[in-house]
């Protein structure tokens, strides 16, 4: 077993603290990665706080992982020692069902997707994520990381990147389309970058006037401040697609009214409490309310290659394990520009 030092939460009310644990010895198809950087996703906080009711403790969060390959199993073909590698939100699935075969392992028909942390692996043991020194993952779930981008700023692409890229592709964001993004945080700022890069007219919705200039720099053609009175009246019936990236309960009715006939409001945000929909707001105009969960491994690699070609990375604030509590508090307040990234060198701090 590989002795690993990291940070874990021990209960829904405790803060991340030093924790020693073990990762499995690499099997024939496994890659052992020495973690260099890990992004801080709002899902880390939701799960640590048991917002979704699925918390298992001790929990080592982190699913935006970039690291250096330390060892490879005898049958590994994609990686060699010294390569830069990435791991996102999942580390395994059934691999034989229709969804897995189509590269949509996150929607495994057998429900056997194994998440990177806070999940039971096929060996029956709980998985531990990126807030630690090492991770061992089957190469089928390890991404090749482009060398031309800042690796710390690539880390958030493994969750925030693919989670926004995938629905924007699925609903065909591109020239001639009017796309909205709700919430300017980790996911929201990546959605802006991708929608803009795909050539769509892109509008950011935010509660914060302090984020207007950034939203424009990140790719918004227009920014709508949702704390202004009547903010939703001027664009009624004009959007093809709106991506909801909000982490907390909020009223989606005004956004449904902004959609064109046949338009879609898709949530990637996962608030702890249900979102309410009036039937009238979707019946009128034959509108859809949808959801999307991360993206498959094939599409994640496609997204990384797209980012390499278009020079897209996350806007990051580096942080350390000594400041993780403060970082989490700032994420909850919506006060991060626009993703915290942990430098694993600060693990001993
Ligand atoms: P984040 O960085 O905290 O961003 C969330 C943004 O939502 C904030 O910046 C804020 O934007 C807005 N917001 C927060 N509280 C709000 C409230 N009470 N009312 C209205 N707006 C509010 O979080 P994130 O890491 O991007 O994650 C966003 C959500 O997506 C989380 O729920 C997370 O768990 C989920 N997620 C889902 C997937 C998936 O596969 N579906 C993957 C990753 C994350 P403004 O300040 O601009 O208003
Ligand atoms: Zn995430
Ligand atoms: Zn499957």
Description:
The protein has 349 residues and is an alpha/beta fold. It has 2 domains: 2-159 and 295-348, Quinone Oxidoreductase, Chain A, domain 1, CATH 3.90.180.10; 161-291, 3-Layer(aba) Sandwich (Rossmann fold), CATH 3.40.50.720. The chain contains 10 helices and 17 strands. The protein has helices at residues 42-48, 98-101, 151-154, 160-170, 186-197, 212-218, 253-258, 279-283, 297-310, 324-332, and strands spanning 2-8, 17-23, 30-39, 65-72, 84-87, 90-92, 114-115, 134-138, 143-144, 178-182, 201-206, 222-225, 239-244, 259-267, 288-291, 316-319, 339-343. The strands form 4 sheets. Strands 3, 4, 5, 8, 9, 16 and 17 form a 7-stranded mixed sheet that branches. Helix 10 (324-332) links the parallel strand 16 and strand 17 (339-343). The chain is globular. The mean pLDDT is 97. Bound molecules: NADP nicotinamide-adenine-dinucleotide phosphate and zinc ion (2 copies). The site of one zinc ion has 5 residues, from loops.
């Amino acid at each position: 077993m590989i002795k690993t030092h990291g940070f874990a939460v021990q209960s829904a009310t405790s803060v991340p603290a030093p924790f020693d644990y073990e990762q499995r010895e690499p099997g024939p198809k496994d890659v052992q990665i020495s973690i260099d950087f890990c992004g801080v996703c709002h899902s880390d906080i939701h799960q640590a706080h048991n917002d979704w009711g699925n918390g298992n403790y001790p929990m080592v969060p982190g699913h935006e992982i970039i690291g250096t390959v330390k060892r490879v199993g005898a049958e590994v073909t994609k990686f060699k020692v010294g390569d830069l590698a990435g791991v996102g939100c999942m580390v395994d699935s059934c691999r034989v069902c229709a969804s897995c075969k189509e590269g949509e392992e996150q929607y495994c028909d057998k429900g056997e997707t194994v998440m990177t942390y806070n999940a039971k692996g096929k060996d029956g043991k709980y998985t531990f994520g990126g807030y630690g020194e090492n991770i061992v993952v089957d190469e089928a779930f390890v991404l090749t990381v482009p060398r031309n981008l800042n690796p710390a700023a690539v880390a958030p692409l493994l969750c925030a990147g693919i989670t926004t890229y995938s629905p924007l592709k699925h609903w065909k964001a591109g020239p001639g389309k009017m796309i909205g993004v709700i919430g300017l945080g980790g996911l929201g700022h990546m959605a802006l970058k991708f929608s803009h890069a795909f050539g769509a007219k892109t509008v950011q919705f935010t509660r914060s006037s302090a984020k207007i200039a950034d939203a424009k720099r990140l790719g918004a053609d227009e920014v709508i401040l949702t704390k202004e009175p009547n903010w939703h009246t001027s664009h009624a019936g004009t959007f093809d697609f709106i991506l909801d990236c909000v982490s907390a309960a909020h009223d989606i009715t005004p956004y449904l009214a902004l959609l064109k006939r046949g338009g879609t409001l898709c949530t990637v945000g996962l608030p702890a409490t249900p979102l309410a929909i009036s039937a009238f707001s979707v019946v009128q105009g034959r509108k859809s309310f949808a959801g999307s969960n991360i993206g498959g491994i094939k599409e994640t690699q496609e997204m990384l290659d797209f980012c390499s070609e278009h020079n897209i990375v996350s806007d990051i604030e580096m942080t350390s394990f000594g400041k993780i509590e403060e970082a989490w508090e700032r994420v909850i307040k919506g006060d991060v520009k626009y993703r915290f990234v942990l430098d694993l060198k600060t693990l001993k701090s």
